[in-house]
Amino acid sequence: MPDPNDLNETPPADAAPMSDWRRLAEIFFSPSAVFAAARQKPSFLAPMLAMAVLAAGFSIFFAFWVKADPQEVARRAIERQLELQGKRWNDLSDAEQRQFEQGIALSAGLQRFAPAVGVVAGVAFTLALAGLHYLGLLLAGGQARFAQVLSVTAYATYATDGVKYVLNWLVVLLRPPDVEQLIKARGSFVVSNLAAFLPESLPAWALAVASWVDAFSIWFIALMALGLAAIAYKKTPRQMVVIPAGLWLLGVLGSVILALATGAK
Hints:
Elements: H1 20-29, H2 31-40, H3 45-66, H4 70-84, H5 94-110, H6 114-139, H7 146-174, H8 179-185, H9 204-212, H10 215-231, H11 237-240, H12 242-261
Helix pairs in contact: 1-2, 1-7, 2-7, 2-10, 3-6, 3-7, 4-5, 4-8, 6-7, 7-10, 9-12, 10-12
């Protein structure tokens, strides 16, 4: 195991540069080397392009393989949300029912653009996440360029979400989900968080917290701590872990507030 502190050292001048495509493979086996290379030569187009291909490919495969009715899925999702709030469709006023019907039609229509929406959302999410980590790095007294932080974020996201996409692909291929499973999956069919093992009778805020206790989230936090330490000046992973962990805590808090505000049981 290399010493994380060694990541802040400049590699020898005669060291062969690591290509972008090689970094896509090495991030799984030697993330320290990938992040060290990101300090010398930031790159983010390759991992973002790889994620775009995975997102669009999975969306197209899912629509072809599962063949779920978008309107039925959207309607059942609303009904389930009402159930969590202790309500039924018949309890809604005519105006509320019309509003939900419009939302169902809009959601079903947008399914035609799901591959493009997934790609755009993925790029926007990576940029926003990099911006938050860059702000955290500045507040922590670290010295790095935004391009370096974006490179670290893009490769960390590619590693964690890329594996999740592949696993979801296999799960759907082996066992296509029905409508109820689609609703409960919330975008992922891989059981990787604590909420999947808890009864749904628990308060919504407790399930929201448990959903953030996720193996991929922990992996992402570890990668970001390692990567930020690699590009920052005289910083260690132990010092940098507070940034991704702090953002994770903000996400947990936001989920709890949303669960309490919606009145879900």
